[in-house]
Structure of Alanine aminotransferase 1:
Amino acid sequence: RCRPQLSAAPPLPCRARAGLARMAENGLRDKVLSLDSMNPWVKRVEYAVRGPVLARAVELEEELRQGVKKPFTEVIKANIGDAHAMGQRPITFLRQVSALCLYPELLSEPLFPDDAKQRARRLLAVCGGQSVGAYTASPGIEIIRQDVARYIERRDGGIPANPDNIYLSTGASDAVMTMLKLLVSGEGRSRTGVMIPIPQYPLYSAGIAELNAVQVNYYLDEENCWALDVRELRRALRQARGHCQPRVLCIINPGNPTGQVQSRKCIEDVIKFAWEEQLFLMADEVYQDNVYAEGSEFHSFKKVLFEMGPTFSRVVELVSFHSISKGFMGECGLRGGYMEVVNLDPAVQQQLSKLVSVRLCPPVPGQVLLDVVMNPPKPGEPSYQSFIRVSRQLLPEGHPPTSPMGISPQIHQLPPAPAPFPSP
Ligand SMILES: Cc1ncc(COP(=O)(O)O)c(C=O)c1O
């Protein structure tokens, strides 16, 4: 006998259901989810970072492990910056605080320094049930967002940062996708155009494809150390206006994979361009600590925007991204980061807060790690000396620390790129 169905859909007659069962047994029944029926935008996504070249590299590694003879003995993966996978050791203090938060029984261990314990206690005190296993607020733990705001203020020479405008994330990738989701709309010629640099980091083209937005390429100037030229932005914008509505300008500074660091003047020009053309600026600044060529300096978009005065600083809509994956820490597996929004329409910001709440919260170990990066040991604290020493060991020999925290980047720079990625 057929049992009554609980769903609102009318039940299939028993004979039809028996027919479907027979087709399934014979392997004839169509999948509900097939290549034809699936989301077509997902099919268009390409992500070279994890694509067929990487799959082949993994195969080659396996063959080498099995003793297959090749004209090489090692595979060096250059698909993504993954410092620990390339042999960088984790920074002790970051891991001490993380370990204490994950396993608070260690708080009674004399092995751990007092400043690591004090930080772990402070973070645990604001976790539900004093456990990093509890959900947190959706934009992230409040005191960590405050620490991020203070970090940004130190970095930007005192320009205020509001913790309410800071959203912690599962790495920068998650935050970039969240913002793109808010920005993409329209159909046909009114579809959102998103301007991205070429060469780019493929998160952008993949996100644009997934959301069925229009990718608008602007080309970096290879002859000029991959500099960004505003004339090229104008060209790309003019051309794109014929078939979509460009509303977003993505900047990667310092650049990946090109390694260029934008001058302050260039950033000003880009901000003026965004202001004139009414574009929303997305500044991917995940390599902000990895700047070490003579004469090169990182300027955040937020700082330059505010230094340009109220005509711009009250108007230009900006989001900037940072991450624990890069910098001197390279903790990409722990998945932490943040974005700061500036001049977002308050009604849209409510929508953003709603959107991030659907994911409940970013991983708490990533939030903890981010907090220690934003708030490293200070002079006079027990771990300060060793933290600075370990961070300096990550520098190419002879380079002084250059980051705002007095901490140094870890990746050797090959000329002429001033940031970690050499020119191809
Ligand atoms: C420019 C750029 N943005 C974002 C990301 C992703 O960073 P996360 O690991 O924080 O998601 C990367 C990773 O390599 C990157 O190079």
Q: What stands out?
A: The chain has two domains: 34-79, 121-393. Strands lie at 166-169, 192-198, 214-219, 245-252, 280-284, 318-323, 337-342.
